[in-house]
Amino acid sequence: MKKEQSHHEISKVYIRFLDPENLSFAIFENEKSIAAACVHLGKEYNELESFFVAVDLENKGYGSEIWNCLENKFPAQRWCVSTPVYSTRNHYFYMKKCGFKHIEDRENISYFEKENL
C-alpha cells in the first residue's frame, strides 16, 4: 500500500493517558481542533476504539496521515477496529486507505483487522 506524503501542518497533539493501556488524542492544526482518536494498547493487539476527523477536512488526507502516525508510534502485530455496518465510508477508509481487512459483521457492527508481519 502506498503511503501518502504529509502535507499538513499539524501543530499540536495532546495525549491523555487514561491508564497505561488507553490513550486519547486531540489533534490541532493552527490552533483549530481537527481530529481525535482513542487507542487501546493491548498485549496481543492494539485497537483503534474511536477516530474522528472534522467534517470540513474529510477527504483531504488528514485521516490517512493521522492513522499512519498512530500506527508508527504504537507498532503492533495486529490492529483491530469496528464501525457500524451502515458506515460504508468508514469501511472504505479502513480497507483502502489503512490496509485493514473485513473480518465479519455481527449485530450491526463491522469488524476489521490489520496484520503487520
From TrEMBL:
<protein>
    <submittedName>
        <fullName>GNAT family N-acetyltransferase</fullName>
        <ecNumber>2.3.1.-</ecNumber>
    </submittedName>
</protein>
<dbReference type="Pfam" id="PF00583">
    <property type="entry name" value="Acetyltransf_1"/>
</dbReference>
<keyword id="KW-0808">Transferase</keyword>
<keyword id="KW-0012">Acyltransferase</keyword>
<dbReference type="InterPro" id="IPR016181">
    <property type="entry name" value="Acyl_CoA_acyltransferase"/>
</dbReference>
<dbReference type="GO" id="GO:0016746">
    <property type="term" value="F:acyltransferase activity"/>
</dbReference>
<dbReference type="InterPro" id="IPR000182">
    <property type="entry name" value="GNAT_dom"/>
</dbReference>
<feature type="domain" description="N-acetyltransferase">
    <location>
        <begin position="1"/>
        <end position="117"/>
    </location>
</feature>
